[in-house]
Design a protein that fits this description.
480 residues; Immunoglobulin-like
């Protein structure tokens, strides 16, 4: 997965046909795009990045194949309008939980960004993850960064055509499988697999497989760093979440300058530790020269940290010329202990407390969630009518939603007005994860309420578990 880093001189980078990447050029957005031939590296952060890539992809590609209670374990079934997540069944009425989950995600982003910068971008963002995978495929087929640059610069011939075709076919297969897997979260996997042999997908399944697959192919295969630099909004507002105590990837200018070539073990008072090899730029997926300071294009992947550490080992200098640190630590010469002591500051404490409270409320809500929903609608065609026996009758339609995966029988009772009763059958049988509509008549003595609207309550409870119950308010109308 990595090329051996052996060049340690400024001239070593001249063979790459994009020597200006990482430097500010005139023209801004209107400058012609130059392809970045990312050099692979290895090291502590690279291993962690690949570990996250493997973990996220095992989860993404594997979840649709898991089963739970003879069904797909994770299925956001749009047709049935139900979300199956292992043992939970969520209905549209549970949108509150989705809102809380989005709030938790936002505060998590604020919290971790305030502590250690763009960890999400560098390690878990789908754009980063799939760019890493597509780049790995490209390296396996076309070779290292120098060979890829040379291949692109060469005229079209049989070898170049075959390599490019193999790469695009591999990219396309992965992109289509990614689109298929994405759709499998919203449409049952067994139905999709049954459609594969005949390619008889539904219109919306076909659209989203091709749409998601195409965007994966284009974004991860061709646009790459352009998505991070020009399309991602996070790159533009990240600065408001940083402060001088945020850990970011930093070049130690005081130690590294002035730059210059020196041999292993050489001590020169006129030179810094940076030998100006340019490898920190070559390994950067967005073409940033970290020696120019923190830039919005930097996604915090730490590839430059691993590359620079290897160079420092080769020249016999201490590691950490490029490292995770803070602006304050660089100015005051702090070590790790002082940096960690300043992680818990006002900003991170506020984010952490809010995140803890919202997360606790979310967990508590899930733990105490009653798997029963009831909608009560009074028949507006009949505002209430007097029937024999000195009674007033109102008609209601109850929609009982069983949110568990076992069939249940629910008992319906009414209260709120004297001698209110349901004369008909008041037991409702509902299948697993289904809803059942039932029409109920409610009788109340003529003198039990006031003219107009009166408040009553329906009590719905499961016969096998009295703890599963709902109390729903309704209106009983007495005619004038």
């Amino acid at each position: 997965m990595s090329d051996t880093i052996s060049e340690t001189s400024p001239q070593a980078s001249s063979s790459i046909p994009v020597p200006t990447r990482g430097k500010k050029e005139k023209g801004g957005l209107y400058t012609a795009h130059k392809k970045i031939y990312v050099r692979s590296t290895s090291g502590f952060f690279t291993k962690w990045r690949w570990a996250v890539v493997l973990f996220t992809q095992i989860v993404f590609y594997g979840l649709p194949w898991l089963t739970w209670n003879d069904r797909q374990a994770v299925l956001l079934h749009l047709v049935e309008r139900k979300f199956y997540i292992f043992g939970w069944v969520f209905w549209p009425q549970d949108v509150f939980f989705l809102a809380i989950l989005l709030i938790i995600s936002a505060y998590s982003l604020f919290f971790f960004t305030a502590i250690a910068g763009r960890l999400w971008c560098g390690y878990a963002c789908p754009q980063t993850v799939y760019t890493e995978i597509f780049l790995w495929i490209e390296q396996k087929i076309e070779g290292d960064h120098l060979k890829r640059a040379k291949l692109d610069a060469s005229p079209m011939n049989g070898r170049k055509f075959s390599l490019k075709a193999a790469k695009y076919l591999a990219w396309g297969a992965l992109a289509l499988w990614t689109g298929f897997t994405f759709v499998a979260y919203f449409s049952p996997l067994d139905e999709l697999l049954a459609s594969v042999s005949t390619l008889a997908f539904g219109s919306w399944e076909t659209f989203w497989i091709l749409f998601y697959g195409t965007f994966t192919f284009v974004f991860a295969g061709f646009m790459r760093e352009q998505v991070c630099k020009f399309m991602c909004p996070y790159a533009r507002f990240q600065s408001v979440m940083f402060d001088p105590d945020t850990m970011v990837i930093t070049y130690d200018e005081a130690r590294g300058e002035p730059r210059g070539v020196h041999r292993k073990g050489e001590v020169a008072a006129s030179k810094g530790d940076c030998i100006d090899c340019g490898i920190c730029v070559q390994v950067c997926p967005t073409g940033v020269d970290i020696r120019n300071g923190l830039q919005y294009e930097c996604i915090g992947c730490a590839a430059c940290v691993d590359a620079c550490d290897q160079i420092m080992d080769k020249v016999g200098a201490p590691r950490g010329l490029v490292r995770y640190t803070t602006e304050t630590a660089i100015k005051r010469g702090w070590g790790r202990s002082e940096i960690f002591h300043h992680i818990l500051r006002l900003r991170t404490l506020v984010y952490g407390v809010v995140l803890l409270l919202i997360g606790s409320a979310f967990i508590w809500g899930l733990a105490t969630r009653i798997p029963l929903r009831v909608d009560v609608i009074r028949d507006r065609a009949s505002l209430g009518q007097e029937i024999p026996g000195g009674l007033i009758e109102n008609v209601y339609m109850l929609r009982v939603m069983n949110m568990t995966e076992q069939p249940r029988i629910f008992t319906v009772a009414v209260e709120g007005l004297r001698e209110a009763q349901i004369p008909d059958e008041h037991r409702v049988e509902v299948k697993a994860a289904q809803s059942q509509e039932v029409t109920l008549r409610v009788h109340v003595p003529l003198d039990a309420g006031e003219r107009g609207a009166n408040k009553i309550f329906f009590e719905i409870s499961a016969e096998d578990d009295p703890g599963v119950r709902r109390r729903e308010k309704a209106t009983f109308f007495f005619p004038g």
